[in-house]
Amino acid sequence: MYFFRYPLKTCLCFFLFLPNLYAQLEITFPTSRLVLQRDNDNRANVPVTGQCPTNATQIRAQLTVRQGGNPTGWVVLDNAPSNGVFQGTFTGVTGGWYNLEVKAYAGDTELASTNMDRVGVGEVFVTAGQSNSWGVNCYSGQANDDRVSIINYWTGQAGQFSENALPFAVSHADLSSGLNNTGMFPGAYLYLWGALGDRLVAQHNIPVMFYGASYPATNSKHWVRTANGEESWGSLSNNMPYRLLGATILHYLKRTGVRAVLWHQGEGDNYYQSYNDYVNNIGTVIDKSRAQMGFGKLSWVVSRVSYIPATLGSEYNNHETDPNIIAAQNTLASQPNNWAGPATDGMIYPIYRKGDYFHLHFDSDDCPSLVDVWSQSLPPTYFANTQPSLPNRTILLTTGYVFPFTTSPGQQVQVPYFSRVPTRADNQYQVDILSETGCYLATLATGTANPLPVNLPGWANGRYRFRVKSTSPAITGEVSEPITINGSGNGLPSNLPPNVLTTTRNGNWNDVQVWSCGWIPSLNDTTELKHTVTIPSGFQAHTSQLRYADGSKLIYENGSLLRIGTN
Predict the structure, then answer these.
(1) CA-to-CA distance for 161 and 164, rounded, in angstroms?
(2) What's the rounded Cα separation, in Å, for the pair 208 and 34?
(3) How much is the pLDDT for 567?
(4) What is the pLDDT of residue 3?
(5) Are 388 and 259 in contact (CB under 8 A)?
(6) Whole-number Å distance between alpha carbons of 448 and 443
(7) How many other CB atoms sit within 10 Å of the CB of residue 447?
(8) Residue spans of the chain under pLDDT 70
(9) Could you tell me the pTM of the whole model?
(10) Which residue, 133, 175, 131, 140, is CA-closest to 154?
(11) What pLDDT, on a 0 to 100 scale, did the predictor assign at position 181?
């Protein structure tokens, strides 16, 4: 009896005094099957963040090849993790399908290890447009290759998702959850895209990921009105359809990068929109998407489509296709970093679209042919002659759309956010209100709820954005889209915090349009001159500090004065 009892006590003591080998080590970014966009040299940076034992002094990691690519070997990912949080980046990772291994150390002692299968460096796309992009499900549209990914999120209805509960579990682009239960976040059927992914994987030997941001029965006016910030237009609300694309950009593509928007829309504009209408409408949508992206010149692959069968209205008699819409799409496709997508107006009944009573929509039998034409529209020359949009920083926290778009002071709004921050137990999230141009004005709320409720201040009067930030660790999130607050206040808090105001154009110092924050600098503000700025006659200007960029100039007119700091 004693012979067995003594060794047991010894073993217990041995394990009690060992370093905490099984302490928590968790990866919060990336996630399994996520694909990061490569550059045209077939490389990408792969950020890795997570939680680790609080006594860890170093985090090491490696990417091992699963299929394609080159192993990284063990690298020091973070040489000074901070109180249980680590962050680092693999640089210049070759396109491929990898497994990720991470280990935490205290000195030379290994504390914990973890791994993640299937991390990709390859091509990322978002599909957008109307019903023939939204699609139908079809068995021939699913992927066979393991390296094709989607976020499988499907409510059965277009445009139904909540930004305070965004998914981040990435799936293989197949129909394993059932023919009627597979969709591509934020709203589209799997349709043909999984099979197109197979073609691209075979062609380039890299993983591919798709997001689906289409909305059926929409025309270019739906898209341009909502891209311009209208909350409701026609029968659609909550900034649909544009918000599908906008939310994908804000919450996902800013993190991963993207090759292109695959655009199929135009049928709803046949007969009703001119060449100029379509160019201007969709051109505005393209510009909006690029501004939201914030880096790179987001590529658009523009399909040439306009077909509406005459059975849908007398206006389509002898007008089933519209050469003005096709010409407009050709113009958009020829613009810098864009590309011509498929031309499908000739793919009509009785060979195609047999399943639709009106013979307007493609059906499951058409998926193989649609995969062919899309594959032909994305040849190697497309990837060689366009530039992807690549993140220039690691983004862990993004702020969602805030509704309503027009409201009043004193009202409460809900601010959603999407966080991959490796938070500590004491973390809180805070909501800042910013000027439309992104200058900090005040902190309005603190908590852990998502969304965070915010009471709008009485001084608010104008256009504002919101920004969510975490406190532990301190991470500042990406800003929201703007809303309008109609009030009687002066538009700025009385105790305006200091900001850095940069000139946006040549002009007079006392012109608010000259300054990035939208107000004239005070003694609290630092000013950066990037243009030629004139202080008008008799005007006294103020700033805390003054910085000059190359080529900038400050001109004093008679009797003008600039007060810097307390001087």
Answers:
(1) 9
(2) 9
(3) 56
(4) 34
(5) yes
(6) 15
(7) 12
(8) 1-23, 567
(9) 0.92
(10) 175
(11) 86
| Helix H or strand E segment including 330 | helix 323-333
Q: How many residues does the chain have?
A: 567
Q: Cβ of 550: how many Cβ atoms within 10 Å?
A: 5
Q: Nearest-CA neighbor of 484 among 504, 464, 470? A: 464
pLDDT tens-place string over residues 392-432: 999 999 999 999 999 999 999 999 999 999 999 999 999 99
DSSP structure class, residue 161: -
For residues 33 and 169, give the distance between their C-alpha atoms in angstroms, rounded to a whole number.
Answer: 8
Q: Is 469 helix (H, G, I), strand (E, B) or coil?
A: strand
Q: DSSP string covering 23-90, please?
A: ---EEEES-TT-EEEP-TTSEEEEEEEEE--TT--EEEEEEEEEESS-----EEEESS-BTTEEEEEE
Phi-psi region of 145 (alpha: psi -120 to 50; beta: other; left: phi over 0): beta
Burial class of residue 17 (count of CB atoms within 10 Å of its CB; 0-12, 13-18, 19+): exposed
Cα–Cα distances in angstroms (integers) from residue 164 to residues 288, 291, 355, 398, 414, in the given order: 23, 23, 38, 11, 10
Nearest residue to 467 via CA among 499, 438, 508: 438
The tokens of 485 are what?
A: 């607050």
Q: Exposed/middle/buried for 162, CB within 10 Å: 0-12, 13-18, 19+?
A: exposed
Query: How is residue 239 annotated by DSSP?
Result: T
